[in-house]
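Table S5 (text form). Sequence records supplied for joint modeling of the two-component complex.
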Amino acid sequence: MDLFFEPLTPISFLQRSGEVFADRIGVIDGERRFSYGEFYERCRRLAGALSAMGARDGERVAVLAPNTHMMLEAHYGVPMASAVLVTLNTRLNTVELSGIIEHSGANYLLYDSAFKEKAVEIADRLKTARGIRLTTIEAGSDNRTNRTSQYEDLLASSQRVETLPEVDERGLLSINYTSGTTGEPKGVMYHYRGAYLQALSLVAHTKLDESSVMLWTLPMFHCNGWCFTWAVTAAGATHVCMRRPDPWEAWRLIRSEGVTHLCGAPTVLSSLANDSNAAKQDRMLKVFTGGAPPSPSLLEQLSSLGIEVTHSYGLTETFGPILICQWRPEWDDLPVAEQARLKARQGVAHLAAVPPRVIDREGNDVPADGKSIGEIVVRGNVVMRGYYRNHEATVKAAPDGWFRTGDLAVVHPDGYIEIRDRSKDIIISGGENIASIEVEQILASHPAVLEAAVVAAPDVHWGEIPVAYVTLRPGEHVSEEDLIAYARQRMAHFKVPKRVVFGDLPKNSTGKILKHELRQRLWQALQ
Amino acid sequence: MDLFFEPLTPISFLQRSGEVFADRIGVIDGERRFSYGEFYERCRRLAGALSAMGARDGERVAVLAPNTHMMLEAHYGVPMASAVLVTLNTRLNTVELSGIIEHSGANYLLYDSAFKEKAVEIADRLKTARGIRLTTIEAGSDNRTNRTSQYEDLLASSQRVETLPEVDERGLLSINYTSGTTGEPKGVMYHYRGAYLQALSLVAHTKLDESSVMLWTLPMFHCNGWCFTWAVTAAGATHVCMRRPDPWEAWRLIRSEGVTHLCGAPTVLSSLANDSNAAKQDRMLKVFTGGAPPSPSLLEQLSSLGIEVTHSYGLTETFGPILICQWRPEWDDLPVAEQARLKARQGVAHLAAVPPRVIDREGNDVPADGKSIGEIVVRGNVVMRGYYRNHEATVKAAPDGWFRTGDLAVVHPDGYIEIRDRSKDIIISGGENIASIEVEQILASHPAVLEAAVVAAPDVHWGEIPVAYVTLRPGEHVSEEDLIAYARQRMAHFKVPKRVVFGDLPKNSTGKILKHELRQRLWQALQ
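The corresponding structure-token record, covering 1054 residues in total, follows.
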């Protein structure tokens, strides 16, 4: 009996805040300020415009933009048109971006004028090489002067949608592309139900409310901003957009806008803590971090700045955070070092997540002894619907209904999970995933290179950085600088190895490269 | 594609808190204290015991108890056995209670020994009159001495359930009986999905967390404690049970247990504010109220005691609160009288609720002018599944998919709803619903009474009280005291008229009693 049933969708949060908080500030972007009423109206107009141009009924709409009001509006306007949102990592190059757009089947691209060159190149490439005609819409980059962009004209001239679309709550809301271990991008499918529950749970955990102010230091193109794009709106809090996570500018905004919340990888927090503009605020600043555990010294530094850190753990496949290092009041009195040790743990399922399991190779749960290592596996409503147009990868990632995260962890006696290693060959640098195999293949494409192995080196600022071990072909030569320059032309810059070490690679009897030996060498060299 | 899908159920909150907060205090009841680990274990044992005795697979289990740990455990143990929870209003008499139990089809009754006499009478009555064999389980009333009740023996000897049951999230979790306008009790069916979303939304709105302490001044038998039975557990907060809402004892517990949250009708809050034991606490005490708007003087009194009030509105049919008078930071600076006026409004949909409508007789939305009156109608996930075994009443209550609340309201220009009157003939006294027709029928059953009309009189303490207007048969006589005594023997005491006025009843040309005229008379008499 479906009497009174209502599908769960995060768009309902904008409807509520657009009405209840109509005259309160919803979005700040440079000198532009939109009330929640205006924000809601703009999203409805965007939906009307997209619908009118055919971007509806499950059509994919890609967005290439930094954290701007347009990016935020796309998170509502696109699904309000019953279309599917595909946000793009602006750090990728045009070859990578074209590949993702083609895979997603998007025929529409919203872009910020800061990426005009990239957008034009992508459109040209798709047209020339693949015969795809991409409809592009440019939004102004400088909001002080450029209020009459193509995007603004479109909004001004369009009819707003009057009613929100009927949805299947397990239907497709967005696709978030991630680097798989093979380097082939995989499109992680988010459903409305998951985004709704993730957002509601985040509001409960972060205590976001109508007097909160979120500074967007986290890219919205990462897991739709860990679903905070929807959570902040649910709370009726103010979004403060930031085009680049510049720490000096961040501190200026923290002060001028009264920021209460922000998110970011430890790298971002470290930049904030070490900036010359850093200063303790009257109000506690709440920070959500993930991607790597925050170090004890960083935690101490942040604490002295009045910043309270919550450590969380997640993947693109889990709508962002799925584990949270749930703090217990009795830990407040422990020595700082002990607090840091506890906070370095990834923790437990958040309110809307199913408790994860940590399993050994036979699929049995490891004992909660803080020693036995197993792989973290997850399921539940805040796990994706699957990989877009890649059923094989979906099945492989979840052979038994539990998604394999590729992260190896222990379970402590109190049930908190702590990651020890990764089973997948991924390097996480500044919150970005790098598939080592992808970097290796490009290095190996250099005429002088025989073979290459890329591993993660620990780095105070970035968490990890890629380092390449390369064997040259007999008689050939290339310098470290030249090889790095070669790589920079062929991949997003964050993926490029920071160092190249030449020499033989350690291998086992069957010829497999022993990466753990390379990691040991690196660690020894660093000590 | 149902990959990773997990049905929503509030039982998952106890699983989480039972694991994450295993060693933190979950429940305090007199001198007994249970950690979340123990609370979880006891509920799993209760489920095992119920299952073993056949109370499973949709069987109904009734509970007659004040706010005790057993009552709270039943909110988890019963659904963990896949049975359906039927909590009973302890203020009803045995005829009323027997009728409800029979209607629910419950074959099991958990009761607190304070209600032993009632329980025995109910069991006898059901057996004698209806041939129903009720299995009863007694829990000890005095927790200081009586730790070896039938209930405790059962828990001690039973096998705990190992895994939580698979559920259909729209399946039947509990039935909450309410007085309909006809006086016939109606069983409001709660589904798992609604209780889960209601609880999660309440956590977000109330900011309940693991350091919160909830004092149970609200009866858990009212809408399962407005779903706070599940919300408090979700937050990992501590439940403090109270068998009677005694204000002196409440203040003692507020101090000794560090209470941060409580709920209750304005009547309860007024008793608290006026108690000799009242004193301002260091910590802000957050209160959720509903059933009637809190008066300006009460709000002022509470504020001086460090009590922050959130006004909400709901019905049994809406899992408790569905509207919330969402406070805006800019109202903090208004004069107290103005704040009270704003806070007297019922407000807007909470986070998990669908925005309500206020419609005129033709079904059109009334304008948001603060003047035009219409009926509040609701739908969405926090509205019941329907009335148990009463499809006709369900259809009648929601002819078009929108549930008719019977409350007449205006919509203010800012979208906030404020109730002006009730279209249904219900009196709300101290948070309890009284169907005037039921009281009228019992008064009319007295041999001396020709006809009776019962209306609500405003009352500072109770919000409303029932007052009877009675016409005697020619030549017959009964005194006010005797008629009230007659009524007290035949209905729950809270339903009994506080005054009886004898005389002719005003009628229209077709002989219909004009209740609004009686109300006017009452108001004039009170001025």
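Note: The mean pLDDT of chain B is 93.
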